[in-house]
Write a structure and sequence with these properties.
Strand order of the largest sheet: 3-4-2-5-1-6-7-8
Oligomer: single chain
Distance between the termini: 20 Å
Order of helices and strands: EHEHHHEEHHEHEHEHHEHHH
CATH superfamily: P-loop containing nucleotide triphosphate hydrolases
Strand content: 15-25%
Number of helices: 13
Number of strands: 8
Number of domains: 1
Shape: globular
């Protein structure tokens, strides 16, 4: 069943974008047709992580009603071996574009939501994409709120940092509970001992803290940090523990099987 998955976080530095990119790569390695979009318009990064050059049409242009979604998509399927397909829609990283996005009013935001819903319908219903993944902006800016409203499933990434824990709890309680979107939590950058104890007791502890199901706990892998976003782990390091965890998370999203 096709899904639009939004990857979100309370604040930056949680590994949200690395999770979004590698989750997309995981689905592609499983033979899926995937499109990933950068909705972090205030700090775009996918263009650099995916090493995309000479981009002339941006996701900003689509939301401004200057083009169609097909004009935005960049075919990156050659980056990953196998039967799957990978496309990306990138946010404009220029200073002017980042400044412009901060000036938008409520009417523009509502039109942008309509454009995202249209994007979802076109890619899933007409072009038969299996997954659309939104890498959102952290916090509750209009782009992340629009992504959550549009999504079929939201992956919330968080860490053990006390401000992140408290902020994520408040965000879930005060915002997420307004929607009925299926949601799962990824605890990122955790100590090895905590991650290895991903048993019923640990899962219950996390559910008691956040009151949402847990997708997985990801240790603070040195290789992930050293890669600095340049590595697509499902392609480049298929046997790495991070890759295996990604596969487990992807399977839970696929089957709607969150603990």
């Amino acid at each position: 069943m096709s899904k639009l998955v939004a990857v979100h976080s309370y604040k930056g530095g949680t590994g949200k974008t690395i999770m979004a990119v590698n989750l997309a790569a995981t689905f592609v390695k499983q033979g899926k047709k995937v499109a990933i979009f950068d909705l972090d318009f205030r700090a775009p990064s996918l263009f650099a992580i995916l090493r995309c050059e000479k981009i002339s049409v941006w996701l900003n242009d689509y939301l401004n009603n200057k083009c169609e979604v097909d004009d935005v998509l960049v075919d990156l399927s050659s980056r990953i071996s196998g039967m799957g397909k990978l496309y990306a829609g990138l946010a404009d990283p220029s200073i002017d574009a980042m400044r412009d996005i901060t000036t938008k009013d409520r009417r523009w935001e509502m039109r942008a939501l309509g454009r995202l819903l249209s994007l979802k319908n076109k890619l899933i219903d007409e072009q038969k994409f299996d997954y659309i993944i939104f890498d959102t902006s952290p916090g509750l800016h209009f782009s992340s709120m629009n992504a959550i409203v549009t999504a079929d499933f939201v992956v919330i990434t968080t860490t053990g940092d006390c401000s992140d824990v408290n902020g994520t709890k408040r965000m879930i309680t005060e915002f997420y509970k307004m929607f009925e979107t299926k949601t799962g939590l990824v605890i990122n950058k955790v100590l090895d001992d905590d991650a290895r104890s991903n048993n019923a007791e640990y899962v219950k502890k996390i559910k008691d803290i956040y009151n949402v199901p847990m997708l997985g706990a990801v240790p603070c892998f040195c290789e992930v940090l050293k890669a600095e976003g340049r590595c697509l782990f499902p392609q480049d390091k298929p046997e790495h523990p991070f890759t295996l965890l990604l596969s487990e998370i992807a399977d839970k999203i696929e089957m709607n099987n969150v603990n």
